[in-house]
Amino acid sequence: MNAMTQDLDAIPKLNTNGGTSLQALSDWVAEVAALTQPDAIHWCDGSDAESAELIAQMEADGTLIPLNSETHPNSWLHRSHPDDVARVEHLTFVCTSDQDDAGPNNHWMAPADGHAKMDGLFDGCMRGRTMYVIPYCMGPIESPLSRCGVEITDSPYVVANMRLMTRMGAPALERIEREGRFVRGLHSIGELDPNRRFIMHFPEELTIKSYGSGYGGNALLGKKCHALRIASHQARQEGWLAEHMLILGIENPQGQTHYIAAAFPSACGKTNLAMLIPPEGYREAGWKVWTVGDDICWMRPGADGRLYAINPEAGFFGVAPGTSAKSNPNALKCVQRNTIFTNVGVTADNQPWWEGIDDDQQPAVDWRGEPYEAGKRPAAHPNARFTVSARQCPSYSSEAENPAGVPISAIVFGGRRASLVPLVFEARDWTHGVLVGAAMGSETTAAATGQVGVMRRDPMAMKPFCGYNFADYFSHWLSFDNGQNKLPKIFHVNWFRKGADGKFLWPGFGDNLRVLEWMVGRVEGRANAVDTPIGAIPSEADLNLEGVELSDDARAVLFGYDRDGWKAEFDSIGEYLEEYGPRMPEALKDERVRIASELG
Ligand code: GTP
Ligand code: SPV
Ligand code: MN
């Protein structure tokens, strides 16, 4: 027993309901309690009774506002602090002993400094509050691909969200006690002061410390902090990949299903693609799309050399604005009950409302809780979100909980690119595909604080989430091409190409299936394409465009490529790779040179 545990034992009034047989866990909980000084400790078992009690308490103190129980049973609105509505990348750190291991892609602090800073903030911060201990499992409890963690938090809102987003409670604790290892995540909402807010990762210690925010990616530590930043570090050591990708199944009329994993940056269409409803002609012909995951994908080679993927999450934390019966009917069906809405507006009869919901209701109250006034601010914050169990999704795949994962046939990269980038192209091999991922660019969105609409490099949609040096990450990706693995084909898409009038040229959403069908055709060796230096691009005739209205100009840019524009792009990619210095793998730099010289 260490000194801190003794301190804790000396506080007789500390009320605690549970515990664990795992000494490392009970010691850590005691240490945290001694530091943060909560009034009580609650070990979460994940039961319905526990959930009901927490919700009643949050209703009483206004953390959760019940919504219309006829239209949206068992659903709540949470209004966050107005300064706490998105991830804070400038306050997110990776603390490795050697700064180069974190890389130019991360903010860095020495581990000892990081701990000192955070422990200073955590000192006494839970006085008057209950400390919740949340054992959770990322991935199906029985899957060898899954990994566990424990989040300690003083936010019941975080507990309620973690219950939807992860396998939380008693079964997770059992696995943790059996395995003896877990990621440690300590979280406090603190004073919600943006000047006293940090999200710190200590990958070498499998530890996360997050202070001063209640927002999803900053506070639900199983999600981006564990399942991407810490897991990417573990994955590199253990020979797998932890990626910011959706996973979907595409079933053809013959009943064969291919699984596709796709990485798009935050608020660039993962949830929408994962829940895609086929266009009418496809539906009639018997095509189906199945949702495995909408945000995070863990994959590793199986015995047959194919990559097998699981969704480590159990729920969706999705962007509300823009979700409508037209754009994403499956998401809309998911959120009719048992849902927590964060920062949406409400109608006069207390239904959730957001921009683009496309119904005949009007907002009465905005996300700040003030009467809605057109032109003042949007009814819903642009990064308003819903939290809901994946099991409520009508398209939830029967394979989503398969402990073995699903075999991946294609990996797709994509971003928001108003110009230059065509609708789709295929990398010629794995190395080229890794370069395509490494060179990804996208315009920033409201999912993180900061300017929106600025083009930045966001390799593999992991810029905010890779827990180590991107140069090493690209080497890790390249290492999968070892002569034995049967790797998926790699593609790049752009649903966001704009015309001169500033409007999107491609209809997107359900019609994206046309592009996925072409990919499946390429995987099966049936579909055609035109080889260009940037990759294989389908001609219009290679895609099923029946019923899609596209102007001649749109067709030209969606299925064409602009050699001069790409030459400039490849110069810029070269400069970007150089920013990583000598750690950047030669194979990737050589690949860029090969294509740049083909471009002439
Ligand atoms: P995170 O949860 O932040 O990781 O976001 P995401 O990648 O899951 O993005 P999501 O599917 O929630 O989409 C974000 C925004 O992009 C929404 O406003 C969508 O309406 C819009 N969007 C999604 N797919 C398409 C598309 O195919 N075309 C167009 N034009 N917009 C799209
Ligand atoms: C994202 O920003 O990519 C999200 C939401 O999926 S968050 O959980 O906040 O990261
Ligand atoms: Mn995301």
UniProtKB/TrEMBL annotation:
Belongs to the phosphoenolpyruvate carboxykinase [GTP] family. This is Phosphoenolpyruvate carboxykinase [GTP]. Monomer. It catalyses: oxaloacetate + GTP = phosphoenolpyruvate + GDP + CO2. The gene is pckG. Residues 27-236 form the Phosphoenolpyruvate carboxykinase GTP-utilising N-terminal domain. It comes from uncultured Lysobacter sp. PROSITE patterns: PEPCK_GTP. GO terms for cellular component: cytosol. Its EC number is 4.1.1.32. GTP binds at A267, C268, G269, K270, T271, N272, R385, R416, F509, G510, D511, N512. The active site is at C268. It is found in: Cytoplasm. InterPro entries: PEP_carboxykin_GTP_CS (IPR018091), PEP_carboxykinase_C (IPR013035), PEP_carboxykinase_GTP (IPR008209), PEP_carboxykinase_GTP_C (IPR035077), PEP_carboxykinase_GTP_N (IPR035078), PEP_carboxykinase_N (IPR008210). Catalyzes the conversion of oxaloacetate (OAA) to phosphoenolpyruvate (PEP), the rate-limiting step in the metabolic pathway that produces glucose from lactate and other precursors derived from the citric acid cycle. Its cofactor is Mn(2+). Substrate binds at R87, Y215, G216, G217, S266, N383, A384, R385. Mn(2+) binds at K224, H244, D295. It is an enzyme of class 4 (lyase).
